[in-house]
Amino acid sequence: MALIVAKFGGTSVASPERIQMVAKRLIAKRQAGHQVVAVVSAMGKTTDELVGLAAALNDNPPAREMDRLLSTGEQVSMTLLAMAIEARGYKAMSFTGRQAGIETDGTHAKAKIVKVHNERIMDALGRGYIPVVAGFQGIDANGDITTLGRGGSDTTAVAVAWGIGADVCEIYSDVDGVYSADPRVAPRARKLSQVSYDDMLELSGAGAGVLQMRAVEFARKWSVVIHSRSAFSDAEGTYIKEDLDMEEAVITGIAHDTSEIKFTVRGVPDVTGVAAKVFSTLAANNVNVDMIIQNTSQDGLADISFTCPGADKRRACETLDRLLPQIAAKEYLLDESIAKVSLVGTGMKSSPGVAAQAFQTLGENKINIIAISTSPIRLSVVVDGAQATAAVRCLHTAFGLDSDSVFEETQLSAEEIAAKMNKGR
Ligand code: ADP
Ligand code: ASP
Ligand code: MG
């Protein structure tokens, strides 16, 4: 008998029919003798719709109200799932983040979990219930509802799994595991049977949305084994864990991220301290700068480009509007159509030549590199957004990652697929 946490994402609970499927799966686990705790996301595109509603009323909604609003999505799906389980003759009880004991700091929209109290969940399990926990949310020291960042139900699941000492944290989604690239972008991507925490952390951080980065961080810290698998089939998925049974490849996978934007500040006086002023002011205004490129100075003037999340656009523009006259820079330009493509692999550490091969491949495919950054196990390039798919595919082929089979969509509607493809923006 195993103790299992099973998390179902938005697509998996998008309709009453799909909620029924989830209820059946949970009950099947009980019938097989396991104990199970469910964690759910909001139904389908609910969270996006709630964000849209808020935006229609306030273009800068108060963070506290926003978190309260967004947390309601998961509270709808948790109760419906509990009802569906009860209708099938099994006992179920839903829990909000607070009731499930998820205590966080007070950083609205990206709160960090500081404590997990397991009493209520353990008690419900002991009394024969299937607990159903609302993902994505917690409670801060003031008693206010917080949320854990987009995709945060994954983190709830890992935290609950750790809190109750589960054997495995199963994350069910519309793909049957972690692939060597997003299979919707690179249909020749191959399903990986296992991935180390380090590689998964880099992949998630570089945009592989299949698992939220925070969840992987939490799992690595507390050695929670994640099993990423399909909500629509029983196929074995991908295990994220520490000690892999095989040698790690040079390149584990390729991630892409279209959610960043690029600013170029032109005509910056090339004097000591100006870069410090630009980036300290951006940091003070909560702009999360990722890559920085400084072009050679001409006539004592330089251009400084940087990338940051699209979500920080407004704050970055406001900051630059104020800053430019202070540093006597000419102007700034904004490019919203960029993509970051990253090669990730722990084996990269001991394998020279990855960068050379990547640059050559992109060159041969007429893909211009706008910026480059590296870590010991990651190489990222920024390219024109329109070339993102081509860049992922040609690198995937060049590094020998292509599978013989082609990824086939099984369950999603055309509308759902379109929504997924636009998710990065
Ligand atoms: P959920 O809503 O269930 O949390 P997500 O949409 O967050 O699901 O994550 C699943 C999606 O992640 C897939 O539909 C897929 O397009 C995308 N994805 C991105 N990179 C990868 C990858 N390397 N392997 C598998 N899926 C990926
Ligand atoms: N519903 C939230 C979101 O859409 C959390 C999640 O799905 O994990 O980001
Ligand atoms: Mg997700």
Tell me how many strands there are. 20
Q: Which CATH class of the largest domain is shown?
A: Alpha Beta
The largest β sheet comes out as: 8 strands, mixed
By CATH, the topology of the largest domain is Carbamate kinase
Q: Helical stretch count? A: 12
Average pLDDT: 95
Ligands bound to this protein structure: adenosine-5'-diphosphate, aspartic acid, magnesium ion
Structural shape: globular
How far the N terminus sits from the C terminus, by CA atoms, comes to 43 Å
| CATH architecture annotation of the largest domain | 3-Layer(aba) Sandwich
Structural class: alpha/beta
Count of discrete structural domains: 2
Can you list the strand order of the major beta sheet? Answer: 3-6-2-1-9-11-12-10
Roughly what percent helix?
A: 25-40%
Q: What labels would you give this structure?
A:
single chain; 425 residues; alpha/beta; Carbamate kinase; Alpha-Beta Plaits; 2 domains; eight-stranded mixed sheet; four-stranded antiparallel sheet; 12 helices; 24% strand; globular; binds adenosine-5'-diphosphate; binds aspartic acid; binds magnesium ion
